[in-house]
């Protein structure tokens, strides 16, 4: 008995070792292929330089749909199609913000209207600025104090979090709610300090939301240093602000998410890898989320190029309209439900094309622990963090259907310097960092495909 | 007995927990102080923008000595002094490289002479280019084939390593040996493809060495894309290269490393944290190694600011002449030996101001394992890698004396895009990444100071 047990353990041990070794060899092949022959960086150059930013509803977005369709075919997808999505159309138009100090003329400030905000209809709207630095300070203001004023929410992005996404979440309520908070106390429009980890003059746009049954007043963002200067000015004097903007919602439009897949050799259950194809209407949407798009295409290309025999269908989804509606993600989830398509796993890359540090896991304990058991395989690639955490926005409908969801976790230090700004350009993306993200996602999908 | 044992274990457990908790609270205080109030980023702006690059022997280097002295005083050092170091003086001067194709005129190539290389004495030196892509190809060339020719070492930086330092080490021999290899077979000068992870036209300088008793011919570097173009041209035709350069060694000079310390409260044994103050004579020496200098000063500042009661002396060393001689490091080691100063630990930051991922440990097993036992404390700061590995160049003399040495390991993906080039500027450094490196070093020194 002892001997038999010994032999069994030995065999078991060998099998386990064999599997790990085989996986580690496969991990290495994936890495070599992507780092040496990866197309993701050049794809990103095309997307950002030939098309540029691509807000939902824009002509550029429609161009990017055609581009992604072609790229998926070039990467070797067995099947490529467009998924119809009704998307909201928001247009910025001309905009300007000026301030007047008690003893001077008008001075122009760098600004961006927040996404989904209404404008002033091309008319000047002006009033005295009142500053609050927190929600608590806002709560203390009476409607009399705010009436006909401009509310300036000067809440600084907290530098103290190690992961900048925590700083972003912490400050995000100011962006989403400033307009309605202003309107509820009778203010004319809201100015917010940008959700930015940088100390510069770059305004960051991003989605805001109007509360139901509250007047829709405009909301705009200014850069950190402009906010600091304004705060100093407000210490000694009354400041008038004047906004003129043409932005606003222009109804809805039929558009598309782009989907490509390689068919499963064993069954048709689906593993999703994706990013969002749309971006804000400034900069080039390079990190947000051109990176996620080209990485996802790279995953498919690498499976085909290496001839990996995928058991299940590997599907790339380039989601429409993540930035100001998440209509692509919602539509994808709805379609999965309608067609009753079995999904094994879904991963999104939507946190920038920086060097990967981990993969956030949003699924039940058993599955999460199984994946965490593979972590040693990822360590040589600098990927060590497999925390339970929020998965990508576009995947939430899938997550809510009980499908295990995940998100690539790149280093977060630089993201909120350039997020939703003119600075989110191709030049800010490093080739190796971008490709290593694709390596980690390909490796993870290889493991899921093999073991689930 | 059982009960007593139980109690002991409980007390031991509580003490251990208490210590960890206390440490984790202290780690958090350090991080908050540096991320919220850190001066390192502004210090780096001063060093790079007011002084700029600062090669050993230059006036700028002497300015940086004065600057570092003042910064250490401002940071609260109890004692600041200059350590005399005799340094080699290498000067670049004017330089140009042209090529002539069989049917065209002369075309100028972007180039940099390698550091420590001799020039052409301001005269044109020309000859036909022969390309080799590896040492093996070089070995196969006969002296007859090389005589009076220009040897072009076109060895490409390997993209396949995950840590780019491995790619750098792999390619480094071409930079250090190309000139003597060329001379030994009768060639006139050497051109190397830059040790670069980027696919651009930026030449990278860096130290080369002449073998004893071999003619000192010049060696220059060209950027990756220029090297690729030259390779294509050489397929169809003979190409002549013409070099004109004035670089060369100009003897030695007395200069200084800069040292500042806070005195140990318990004893005078020393913990060193440092970087090198010199840089190459192009760009601004921001990542290499302005980052290491300002991070080291930040460590001292943070100890003082938080009132941490350091048991041992914490000493910042800004080493002279790392880039082309390591005379500062050697002199420091020599002085430690002469004065018989007890050193507990030394850590250098000289791998760029990128987000930290680990601390390389170069010491005996017992000490290394003790440090590795602290790794959970570092994990929330993104610092997870405590491998046995080479410590900083300047610390080698200390390491050889048996002193435990370490080096900060930042993310390496972007470093060799800009290393030793015009592109190594302040703009390439991210404030948070830089400061997180200082956080990790301060935390490590806090642990060493407390436990050793």
From TrEMBL, chains A, B:
Location in the cell: Endoplasmic reticulum; Golgi apparatus; Lysosome; Secreted
Pfam families attached to this UniProt entry: Peptidase_M28
Position of the signal peptide: none
Entry keyword set: Carboxypeptidase, Endoplasmic reticulum, Glycoprotein, Golgi apparatus, Hydrolase, Lysosome, Metal-binding, Metalloprotease, Protease, Secreted, Signal, Zinc, Zymogen
Gene3D superfamilies hit by this protein: 3.50.30.30, Zn peptidases
Boundaries of every Peptidase M28 domain copy: 258-434
Main location: endoplasmic reticulum
Assembly description: Homodimer. The monomeric form is inactive while the homodimer is active.
Record-given protein name: Carboxypeptidase Q
Source organism of this protein record: Chryseobacterium gallinarum
């Amino acid at each position: 008995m002892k001997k038999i047990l010994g032999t069994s353990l030995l065999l078991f041990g060998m099998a386990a070792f064999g599997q790990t070794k085989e996986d580690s060899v496969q991990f290495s092949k994936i890495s070599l292929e992507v780092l040496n022959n990866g197309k993701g960086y050049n794809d990103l150059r095309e997307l950002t330089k030939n098309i540029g930013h691509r807000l939902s509803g824009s002509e550029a977005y429609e161009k990017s749909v055609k581009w992604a369709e072609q790229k998926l075919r070039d990467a070797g997808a067995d099947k490529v199609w467009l998924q119809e999505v009704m998307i909201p159309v928001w247009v910025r138009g001309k905009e300007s913000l000026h301030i007047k100090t008690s003893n001077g003329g008008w001075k122009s400030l760098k600004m961006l209207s927040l996404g989904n905000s209404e404008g002033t209809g091309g008319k000047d709207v002006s009033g005295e600025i009142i500053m609050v630095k927190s929600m608590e300070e806002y709560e203390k203001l009476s409607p009399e104090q705010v009436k006909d004023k401009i509310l300036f929410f000067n809440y600084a992005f907290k530098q103290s979090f190690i992961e900048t996404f925590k700083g972003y979440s912490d400050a995000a309520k100011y962006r989403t709610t400033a307009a309605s908070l202003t309107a509820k106390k009778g203010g004319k429009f809201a100015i917010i300090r940008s959700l930015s980890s940088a100390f510069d003059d770059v305004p960051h746009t991003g989605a805001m939301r109007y509360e139901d049954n509250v007047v829709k007043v405009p909301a705009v963002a200014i850069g950190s240093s402009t906010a600091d200067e304004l705060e100093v000015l407000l210490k000694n004097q009354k400041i008038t602000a004047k906004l003129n903007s043409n932005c606003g919602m222009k109804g809805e439009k039929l558009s598309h998410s782009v989907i490509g897949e390689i068919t499963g050799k064993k069954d048709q259950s689906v593993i999703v890898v994706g990013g969002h194809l749309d971006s804000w209407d400034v900069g080039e949407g390079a990190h947000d989320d051109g990176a996620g798009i080209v990485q996802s295409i790279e995953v498919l290309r690498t499976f085909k190029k290496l001839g990996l025999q995928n058991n299940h269908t590997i599907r790339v989804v380039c989601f429409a309209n993540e930035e100001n509606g998440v209509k692509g993600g919602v539509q994808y989830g709805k379609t999965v439900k309608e067609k009753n398509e079995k999904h094994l796993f879904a991963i999104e890359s939507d946190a920038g094309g920086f060097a990967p540090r981990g993969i956030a896991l949003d699924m039940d304990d058993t599955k999460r622990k199984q994946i965490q058991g593979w972590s040693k395989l990822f360590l040589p690639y600098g990927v060590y963090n497999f925390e339970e955490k929020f998965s990508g926005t576009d995947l939430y409908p899938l997550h809510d259907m009980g499908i295990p969801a995940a998100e690539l976790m790149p280093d977060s230090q630089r993201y909120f310097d350039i997020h939703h700004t003119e600075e989110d350009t191709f030049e800010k993306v490093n080739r190796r960092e971008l490709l290593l993200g694709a390596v980690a996602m390909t490796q993870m999908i290889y493991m899921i495909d093999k073991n689930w």
